[in-house]
Amino acid sequence: MSAEEALDVTAYLREELPPVEAALERAVIAIEERPDVAEELAQAIRHGVTTGGKRLRPILCVTAYTACGGLRSDGVYDLACALEMIHAYSLMHDDLPCMDDAELRRGRPTTHIAHGEAVTTRAGAALIPLAAIQALRAARALRCEEETSRLVASLLMQAAGAGGMVGGQWVDLLGEGQAFGPDELNALHRRKTGALLAASLEIGAVAAGATEDVRAGLLEYGRAIGLAFQIADDILDATASAEVLGKNPSDEELDKSTYVALFGLDEARRRAEAEVARALAALESARVSSLELDALARFVVERGS
Ligand code: GRG
Description:
Elements: H1 9-32, H2 39-50, H3 56-67, H4 74-94, E1 104-105, E2 108-109, H5 111-115, H6 117-141, H7 146-160, H8 165-174, H9 182-207, H10 212-239, H11 242-245, H12 259-263, H13 265-285, H14 291-302
Antiparallel strand pairs: 1-2
Helix pairs in contact: 1-2, 1-4, 2-6, 3-4, 3-9, 4-6, 4-9, 6-7, 7-9, 8-9, 9-10, 10-13, 10-14, 13-14
Bound molecules: geranylgeranyl diphosphate.
């Protein structure tokens, strides 16, 4: 692609943010209005879901949806924000004292610092079924077939579950203080970080009624940018300040296996670039032409936080 054709990804992300935030606000208000959700849980959920972040997963979902011919609407942002609800819960739990024990996230106190450990644990757990309901209802409201709507919710739960994010986190926690090899590290991060990112693309494609080939291509793209994203995350943890990151770098302190520890900075950067190339090749072979997806793949490794 020539420089003239490349999309200004910063402008794209800036445009996408308001409708994502609006959808998240709708989702949180609906949770606050539920008679079965205690006020203190709703407050912790609001803290975890609405305090900033790049909103990359919902933006990827909407971008996949539009790349497959779907039209932007409040409804697709409602669907996409189910991914961010799972991501928010994962950060709320990841920051707990029994996991990474972090006090700062996105430049603000973590949810358990603001709302307490017990409430945050319950609020995070409550977000899992709430996200599944959000995905199912949003897909139905988008007039997806019933089978497709259920598939969308099921893909989200599979990505979040033991075969995906939870399983990856479990391996990561067990691995503190151990040195993983490249295959183990890739397998861990395909689940911990990659599964939800890949599901963001796949869910967008499925909801838009994409063909099997296009769906598979977007899933492959999602898997590749998922690994690239984690490598970039390790590089940022090793090189950026807490002020820039909005959180305290913690990999070294927690004695985690990382791409930087395993390969060094230069080789880690080369591997991230190779995953971006793999992502772009997956789009090309599925004949998905999207300047936005091209630019987002590059953003994943070039981002500053
Ligand atoms: C009970 C074992 C067990 C697990 C619970 C806590 C948990 C589930 C999973 C943790 C998953 C996790 C924290 C993965 C890290 C993903 C990652 C690199 C997050 C940073 O994402 P960004 O940069 O963050 O998109 P923003 O702030 O922009 O949203």
